[in-house]
Specification:
Elements: H1 5-25, H2 28-34, H3 36-50, E1 58-65, E2 70-77, E3 93-99, H4 108-125, E4 130-138, E5 141-142, H5 144-148, E6 154-156, H6 160-169, E7 185-192, E8 199-201, H7 204-209, H8 215-220, H9 231-248
Parallel strand pairs: 3-4, 4-7
Antiparallel strand pairs: 1-2, 2-3, 5-6, 7-8
Helix pairs in contact: 1-3
Amino acid sequence: MPIDKQNLIQILQRMKAEYETAIRNGNYTNLIRSKRLIDILHEFVIKELSSLVNEDWIIKDKKVYGFPKKKEQDVVVQPPQDHERDVTVGPILAINIRSQLSSIEKNYDTLFERVFAEALNLHNRFPYMVLGYLYLLPLVGYDAEAAKNRQVQLKERYNIEKYILSFNSISGRQHPTDALWKYEKVCLMIVDFLHDPPEIIENMNQFVEKGLVNEKFAEMYSFEGLSINKFFDELYKFMMERYYLLLKE
């Protein structure tokens, strides 16, 4: 089932407006810390999931005990517990949603360590659990120094090839016995916020045209697996393969 692209573009427009207004008002740091900005994207994820599974199975901001630690997950799918029949089922899917709109290159190491640590923590305890990760990056990042002076400037360039390779390397976990630190599906949603309305970059040809990856890189690697287009469908497919009787009872 295709995603609601029109709704997603509207969501991205809201995020852009909120973020740029916060920069001009001098409170963009508080906006990010409050989670209000990323919660806008959470709305999109929950709506897309609602078209695939029962709404009462979808839980936002749920703490899940992995191993070795407890960690709050942004969106979890978990069937209601049937205490009368003594039947309980743990979480069967989790999607975490992150964004980095400025200081992108500076935060790469910390970001990437956290990403695969989250998958490892959950799969250690729940090897059959389906994990998705949605990461939003601007095609050109907001300038952090300008933002301190309440100026909206998009001019930060970063190594997009590195991000494509990194996220491809932790995506595509096919079977519960596969590497625990990998995700079943990762979406690297790169958005051109200079474009009005915001434009989602969906294939390698667009990166080549904009001079952000070289042609040799585009020949060797694909961006298709990181696209938002089949993100939810493929997560649902994994759930069907592992929990068919549960989903269809």
